[in-house]
Give the backbone structure.
Amino acid sequence: MTAFDDLRAYQRQTETLKSISGLLSWDMETQMATGSSDKRGEQLAVVSGLVHDRNAAPQLRDLLDAARAEVVQAGDLRHLDLIQIEADAATRIPKDLAMELSRATVKANQAWAEARKTDTPSVFLPHLNTVVRLLRLRAEALRRDDDPVLYDALLRDYEPDAKSAMIDQMFAQLRPRLVDLRAAVMAAPAAPKLSGHFDKAAQVDLVNDLATRFGYDMARGRIDEAVHPFCEGSGSDVRVTTRYDEADPLNAIYSIIHEVGHAAYEQNVSPDYDLTIFGHGCSMGVHESQSRICENQIGRSREFTGWLYGRMRDAFGDIGVHSEDEFFRAVNR
């Protein structure tokens, strides 16, 4: 075996631990009883600590140094660079902080779900404050000399090499047109709205049909319900969720189209990269581009809504709008 092979074998175990963490998080959002949150927080904290130990270990440094001495292919060099980034971060962030953030995030998630259900934001606020405090500590640990804004240290987790100044400049350019667009939307006549009772079982059938039509491989994933729709996993195990409202089927429909956009991206990463640092989406910006293309560019187009109108009439009968044009306007209201 080469030094690069040894590194890949080491990293495979680290990526496996990350995937276990993702599965625990998925279960927390979809299956776990509310009374189990403290135990789940400890489980996720322990896994987080194990990942931290592996990324901060001198053994990983030695493997990286040995691999760099023999690797010449650009793709393999990038592989090393990405592992190096995680190793450097682990040496900066205290293990206790990484574990405490996992615990706090679980508690905050459960409090948020309760606050949403009961419309009592005060239930969530203390937990939000705790998570923000811990994230500030994480940002301070990761902050580099070329980070003029503290948030830049966290922004890299979502969009590598991005800076707050770049994001500010982008939105400054978009703002005038967005303000005009909002004014035009507010001044436009009210769009039609769906009405009636939309049976949940029929929605489930439609959601499953839509997921496969948008390229989701059900043999390597599953669809569940969650308070807030999300996608979790990579490669051969990518799970998506949606939520159902019997007064508003568009909620479930466009949530699943959005999440399947994420999932199809993950499912189409080369199997050669499974359980490697290349085995998942490269940035949040790219990920959201895939989900939004499916949800908005395809899912809200006249061509697609024309088909969906007929499909919904077949599933639900009278849906409160009576033409493809009305349905198109209702979907894009």
